[in-house]
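Protocol step 4 of 6: record predicted structures for both targets in the notebook before any analysis. Target 1:
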Amino acid sequence: MDTIIPLEDPGHDLDMVTLFSSMNHDAEMEALSIQSVLEGAGIEAVLVGPSTIPSVEFQVQVPRAQKDDAERVLAAAREAGPASADEAEKQTEL
């Protein structure tokens, strides 16, 4: 009979926590942008919110273990502004 070895329990490190939340008219677009920036930096991000009901809150959630990294990436992206995003996109087209 085979012995089953339990995997190490990651605890709450994989619990999803909200990094961004908004009910603004442009919340879906901002959430999608944030999700894209985070995933580009190798951070898992999940978009939460229905696109069919614009009055409902949109959220971007990340694993608890990656929240600090996600906050740093997002702050750096906001500081760099849209010009930096355009430049990064051009570099991926090469």
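Target 2:
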Amino acid sequence: MRHRHYGDGGRGKGEEATPLPTRIARVVRRIIGAPDYWAYLEHCRLAGHPPRLTEREYVKEFLDTKGRVRCC
């Protein structure tokens, strides 16, 4: 029987786990409806294109569009 190692976040070899304070901050942002620029950057990285918005622009667009920032 294989045991799951706690703290690896279920990631494969070579992938770093997101630090606990960062994960907690993301959860809190989602709960209160605050913009998460780091999630936007991660999306851009995974989609294979550079971010088109600075953090300031992202937050402004997020607030102006009530959380529906369009990227792709």
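Step 5 preliminary note on target 2. The chain has three helices and no strands. The chain has a mean pLDDT of 76.
Proceed to step 6 after PI sign-off.
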